[in-house]
Design goal:
- This protein is α/β, with parallel strands linked by helices and 157 residues long.
- It has one domain: YqgF/RNase H-like domain (Nucleotidyltransferase, domain 5).
- The protein has 4 helices and 5 strands, in the order βββαβαβαα.
- β4, α2 and β5 form a beta-alpha-beta unit.
- α1 packs across α2 and α3 packs across α4.
Amino acid sequence: MRALGLDVGRKTIGVAMTDALAMAAHPLEVIARAGLAADLARIVALVNENAVNHIVIGLPLEMSGKAGLRAKRVRVFGSALREALSEDVEIHEWDERFSTIAVERVLIDADLSRRRRKQVIDKQAAAFILQGWLEYRAGRSSRNTTEPDTTDLDECE
């Protein structure tokens, strides 16, 4: 299994990938948003180049757990990505509510400058999201013990 993690934002998409054994997530790159077609083309290229069969998209749920406007945008992106990929690639949503905050704290603790943090935070957040999903699949997660509740999908339509 090879998985790609995505932290989809308005200006950038952070990307992470699993190692060959699918045990650990590693930051890969930050894609500067250049329009839906270009963004999808880059992700599809990464999927094809690396034989990816799972994509984990961070879902920015609200603190209440409901899907708001940001989550709706990510789901629209996920739907477009699903159409652009072969059906052999599974797309999963993962609650990302605290990913950026957690990564920011780690980067501050590592004494990275504000400028350097800005350059790497999105791909580090993607790795954090992907690692959480990997741990959940392995049954050893202490955080985010379930995939996001999608029962409120119709509420954000």
